[in-house]
Amino acid sequence: MDSVMRTTIYWINKDYQDMDKIKNIIQASINVKQLVLKDEELISTIEKVVNVIVNAFKNGKRVYFCGNGGSAADAQHLAAEFSGRFYTDRKALPAEALHCNTSYLTAVANDYSYDVVYSRIIDGIGQEGDVLIGLSTSGNSKNIIKAFETAKEKKIITVGFTGSSGGAMKACSDHLINIPSNDTPRIQESHIMVGHIVCQLVEEKLFASVP
């Protein structure tokens, strides 16, 4: 067999391996979502969180989001679904991701500690009856845990988006949405799915129903 033929066979085999890997990753994501679908307790918690947020907005309260890394991007994404729009053309809802002011974030991290970047701003702007949603795949992000502790002191409702165990956030979350996985990318994919469900149902309950 000449070198050209060997090279061709190599790349054909590699293409098949890559295709199999892609399919396996997609299937892994589907498997986690199927576990969510079958978890009645988790589904019930998601429903409760929808109603908590609806009541907060009806009472003139605000919803805050926080996270780190990819979860910060998810937090910003979900906050924008409320303050912008999801399906319905309607008035803006008061929701905000707490990491978007980089001057504040870097000043507090530099002058105090990155662990307090979220707790300090919640102490400054959070009000009783607001909702604080923290996204952490491990459930052990110190800055989110401290923010939840401050939220408790101010009678702010806390919602944790975590992985399977819930981590340390399990003990300090009023409502825990713990995705049944220990794989960070799979957890984050389901966080966005659940976040979109929450955004859609909140919008439907507050405004015109989606067809």
Structural features, described:
The structure is a single chain. The protein is 58% helix and 11% strand. The chain has 211 residues and is of the alpha/beta class. A 5-stranded parallel sheet has the order 2-1-3-4-5, sandwiched between helices. Helix 6 links the parallel strand 3 and strand 4 (157-162). Helix 1 crosses helix 7, helix 2 crosses helix 7 (184-206) and helix 3 packs parallel to helix 7 (184-206). The chain is globular, with a radius of gyration of 20 Å. The mean pLDDT is 93.
Task: Write a short abstract of this structure.
By secondary structure, the chain is an alpha/beta fold. It has seven helices and five strands, in the order ααβαβααβαββα.
DSSP, total strands: 5
How do the strands line up in the largest sheet? 2-1-3-4-5
What multimeric state do the chains show? single chain
Q: Uncertain regions: pLDDT < 50 for 5+ in a row?
A: none
Mean pLDDT, to the nearest integer, reads 93
Largest sheet: 5 strands, parallel
| Protein structure class | alpha/beta
- H/E element order: HHEHEHHEHEEH
| Gap from first CA to last CA | 62 Å
Helix content: 55-70%
Computed Rg:
20 Å
Total of helices: 7
The share of residues in extended strands comes to: 5-15%
What's the overall geometry? globular
